[in-house]
Amino acid sequence: MVVACSLQLACVRAGFERQSRAVAPDRSAAGVDVGSGGRGRDASARDRGARLDPSSPPSERDAGSRDALAEEAPCPGGPTVFYTNMPARRVLGQADFVGSAANRGGSATAASLSRPLGVVVYGSKLLVADNRNNRLLVFDREPASDGAAATAVIGQPDFTSTAAMTSASTVSAPQGLGLTGSALFVAEWDSARASLWPLDSLFSTPRLSTVFGQVDANSAVDVTTSVTPTSLGSVPSVLAVGSHYLVTDSDNHRVLVFDSTVGAPPAAIAAIGQPDLQSNGAGSLANQLNVPLGLATDGVRLAVVDAFNDRLLFFDQVPTTSGVAASSSWGSWGQGALNLDNPVGALSDGTRLFVADRGNDRVLVFNRWPTSPDQPPDVLIGQATYGTGEANQGQGTVAAANSLWGVHFLFYDGCRLFLSDTNNNRVLIY
Fold this sequence. Notes:
Layout: E1 3-4, E2 47-48, H1 62-71, E3 90-92, E4 116-122, E5 125-130, E6 135-140, E7 152-154, E8 174-179, E9 183-189, E10 193-198, E11 210-212, E12 238-241, E13 244-249, E14 254-259, E15 270-272, E16 292-297, E17 302-306, E18 311-315, E19 328-330, E20 346-348, E21 353-357, E22 362-366, E23 379-381, E24 407-412, E25 417-421, E26 426-429
Antiparallel strand pairs: 1-7, 2-9, 3-26, 4-5, 5-6, 6-7, 8-9, 9-10, 10-11, 12-13, 13-14, 14-15, 16-17, 17-18, 18-19, 20-21, 21-22, 22-23, 24-25, 25-26
């Protein structure tokens, strides 16, 4: 349900132990540890999956549709120029750049966030997956001030309700967001589903049209044994590319590939990270995954964020058969310029690649996709130097315009970079 305001619109898992509320899984123990070199962890839980409308194939494609949407909105001063340790230009979810408390230390409002995750821009609107408040908030893409209030809410009857519900008009612990040519693509951890929400009714009568991973919009069955082409466990992210929908099934260490012409319930045609559609073991070979969390495409190539292997896997195109090995990889565990620590989200603007390196509280920006494991990033956001990875650059719970704490997902619309600074309970705009 969309509510107008004056007409305004992870499971921490230690050994995959399930908890109740959703962020992308983290290797560390539950609870946020501010003192462990800043690699603060979430005491969290889950997000899930949806069903497919064969009459609404993915757009002509991700990078292309983002460019088209960006053209609909102005870009004052021109696109952002990225440089190391740069400050954000705007903050949402907090009154200023210093605050970090969930819901600003109180209960949910139109201007507060509690563990924000997915972010996506559609025309002049910014949509944010407000994970612990079980809702999607809609903001102006270029807010007039820091801490601006959302103009609409999706998934709740008003700006103060936060109950988790699984239905065709609600979301339960939403995580990653994406766009197809005709729909908002939503990953829900607690409902073990992904879903498509038609854009033409999103701001009037929002209701999903397609659900992956469940028999209907009211079901929330998390499948981690006896997996099938139609089942899902935890779903942190989604992506539409070419003629396919991709859904990360992190509990089952696979990315499912769906053809846009399949029926309901949708059945995957291939599994990335597994030899077939019935297997779900973890591994570290070029054709295996260990908790995949993020996805990115330049319109042709595919990048998979293989979180527990602390690496990116690259595919020359979206695999349409199971068991395909990555053509190359980048990253290993650590804090240096060639390392990752429990990464989550990634995005590409068609040329550059942005990676949310959650455990190091930073974003890596490559001016071109890495072609060698020895290729360092060109820009570092959230830290001043490599070799450090402290939350809020060592200031604990005191945030700043140039610091991060548990960054998860990102979106670039051709003008601005939007990212979820999850442990600081805010969204930053660069």
